[in-house]
Amino acid sequence: MDKNNHYLVTGAGGFIGGWVAETIFLQNQHNVRAGLHRWAGAARLSRFQMDLSICDIMNPDQLDQVMDGITHVIHCAKGPSPESMINGTRNVIEAAARRGVKHMVHLSTAEVYGNPTGIVDETHALVKTGNPYADAKLEAEQVCAEYIQKGFPLSIVRPSIVYGPFSKTWSVSIGEKLKSGNWGIFKGNGDGICNLIYVSDLVKEVLSISQNEQAIGQSYNLNGPDSLTWNEYFARFNNALGLPELKVIEPESAKMKASIIDPMRTAAKYARDHFEKQIKSLAASFGPAKSAMKYLEGIIKSAPRMVDFDLFNRNAVYPDDKVRNLLGYLPEVNLDTGLSLTVAWMKQVGLIK
């Protein structure tokens, strides 16, 4: 390892970006600059005497400044919109190219493969599904491919489901759903394969790829050591939380509830986006309204969406043989250990008692 390497981590205020920046800093093998979209994202990383910089990936001039002296880039930022994921990625690559960066790793997702079935390795076609996030990640990969063809030193990683401390989607949110009592074992709707990877395993391999010249120009799946269904994940997470045994939810009941809640979720989002000030004023001045809003919010947050069942029923495996053969990658954190660490963190920060 070369202490003269200087890393820029974009999106360092987020779940994975924060883990990457912290890991580089704590390993003390490289210098790291944490790129933040805004200062509000600095709370987590400000625990360390780390180089924190504002880094809006839609601002080329700002990117050019934070790229000064950087040798390696880990691009985790996604921005608030599909446009920022696509054009922001182009801006990051162009700034890195101007500064002569040695190697950039772009964080993508296994969702770029669409809704496949069976063994899905890196040769599988990338498929748009209409999901804004997945489709934008796919287009961002197309931008990456364009610059790889031009000779820019870039690698792409496609992790599966990343969980662990600070994971809002696959740890905190799932934990809250389980605690609500409204979640359960989705009979006939949760038997798809849940491809989980603990966040520290992902970060370790991303950094290894960034230091390997043979990885340049390549794409890599990253997955964890366990093979289980989504229903098994819910049951084991529930057990780790020490909650009562999950109830079995029949297929018709689950989908009927989702079909009712989905329009409510859409209406609530519209109201929040367009009438947030008025809603807050009403809640502050009228107690029953506040209670009703909180109750409705709890129902919406704890109910599955119809689109969730597409994922929970997907029978696809994303093998990571390619990165194992290149770097000898072996994920170290199994599900029981990962859940134990995640629940301990949730207790520490007060998310659960």
Search tags:
353 residues, alpha/beta, Rossmann fold, seven-stranded parallel beta sheet
SSE topology sketch:
Blueprint: E1 6-10, H1 15-27, E2 31-36, E3 51-54, H2 60-66, E4 72-75, H3 82-98, E5 103-107, E6 118-119, H4 132-149, E7 154-159, E8 161-163, H5 168-180, E9 185-186, E10 196-198, H6 199-210, E11 219-222, H7 230-240, E12 248-249, H8 251-285, H9 287-302, H10 306-312, E13 316-317, H11 321-327, H12 335-348
Parallel strand pairs: 1-2, 1-4, 2-3, 4-5, 5-7, 6-13, 7-11, 8-10, 9-12
Overall description:
There is one protein chain. The protein is α/β, with parallel strands linked by helices. It has two domains: 6-159, Rossmann fold; 165-196 and 225-313 and 334-353, no CATH class. 48% of the residues lie in helices and 14% in strands. The protein has twelve helices and 13 strands. It has helices at 15-27, 60-66, 82-98, 132-149, 168-180, 199-210, 230-240, 251-285, 287-302, 306-312, 321-327, 335-348; strands at 6-10, 31-36, 51-54, 72-75, 103-107, 118-119, 154-159, 161-163, 185-186, 196-198, 219-222, 248-249, 316-317. The strands form four sheets. The protein has a seven-stranded parallel β-sheet, with helices on both faces. Helix 3 (82-98) links the parallel strand 4 and strand 5 (103-107). Helix 1 packs across helix 6 (199-210). The longest helix is centred in the last third of the chain and has 35 residues, at 251-285.
